[in-house]
Amino acid sequence: VQLVESGGGLVQPGGSLRLSCAASGFTFSRFAMSWYRRAPGKARGLVAVISSSGDSTDYAGSVKGRFTISRDNVKNMVYLQMNSLKPEDTAVYYCNYAGYWGQGTQVTVSS
Q1: Which residues pair with 61 in a beta bridge?
Q2: For residues 5 and 20, is the Cβ–Cβ distance under 8 A?
Q3: Across the strands, what pairs with 70?
Q4: What 3-state class would DSSP assign to 43?
């Protein structure tokens, strides 16, 4: 199993970023996928989850209405569109499948 995140960077408050996760080594279309994040000094926490078909999603309360998780079961990709970013969204973002983790991608929201 391999999960490779990309798309992080430095963005000003109110800005947007789109994170991507390329998955391989398992039957991607059969499993739910999720994004987590670890902010400085805090434990890793769930951000968003999407069902295997993409029909069902759920979000942490702190990001609901600002972030959107999606997936492409042809390309074996999962995405996290992040809008209206806030400094408190600063964290390393991780893609997750069944306990497997990618290396993470840093998102920094700062003016």
Answers
A1: none
A2: yes
A3: 79
A4: coil
- Band of residue 99 on the pLDDT scale cut at 50, 70, 90: confident
- Going by C-alpha positions, the residue among 91, 96, 90 that lies closest to residue 111 is 90
Question: Which pair of structure tokens corresponds to residue 33?
Answer: 């996928």
The CA-CA-CA angle for residues 81, 62, 44, to 5°, reads 85
Contact 44, 37 (CB under 8 A): yes
Give the span between the Cα atoms of 39 and 43, in whole angstroms: 7
User: pLDDT tens across 15-73, in order?
Assistant: 999 999 999 999 999 999 999 999 999 999 999 999 999 999 999 999 999 999 999 99
Q: CA–CA separation, 21 vs 9, rounded Å? A: 15
Place of tokens 């973002």: 93
